[in-house]
Design a protein that fits this description.
Undecaprenyl pyrophosphate synthetase; 42% helix; six-stranded parallel sheet; alpha/beta; 240 residues
Amino acid sequence: MSDKIQNLPLHIAIIPDGNRRWAKKKGLNSWLGHLWGVKALEKILMTVLDSDIKFFTFWGGSFDNLTKRTKKEVDFLFYLYVKHFTRLAKKKEIKENEMKISVLGRWKEISPPKTIEAINNIEKMTAQNGKKFLNFLIAYNGTDEMINAVRKIAASPEIKPAEINEETIKQNLWTKDLPPVDLVIRTGVENDPHNSTGFMMWDTVYSHYYFTKTLWPDFKPEEFKKAISDYLKTEKRMGE
């Protein structure tokens, strides 16, 4: 990709919607759509690894997804996390690209031991990498992230209200080590382009959004590149 597209966005985030709708259209149990969603993700990750994209963030499930859906679906999602992170840890491309992998959100509060072990393992294994950054948001709601940041700031005896600024807020977010998101891609949009639970609200204030009707399991590297091209041809005003 990097040979064909110049000036790639520094940070791309994806909201992968449509797994369950895709499965229903195929006559499958809705929760099985997540399996094909993982397969789609792996293809996009290989595209990212083969490009000059430095930061890539993927929303792997909101807190609501993992606490309000059926036990069968939630258990299957946790199973997929274990399989995916275990497989990802073995990919030589991760080491070759010196990619650091982080998982952000409230996943430690609700994940079973095997899921926690798989995530801890891949984070520890890649902790010293720093050329590229792959971030997963699991049990993540943007509203939770902001509430947590406000509580941390309020509880700090060293921070006076008059001294609170943008940097103060940023440094207390789960995403404090990530740059602003340049491009947000949301799949599975059916005449309702929108954000969800305040997705990365602080980091997407000037983001370019690419909405597509393509359901996530059908989202291919070709459309990923199309989304980047759409971003590149759009004038960036940054609030001006």
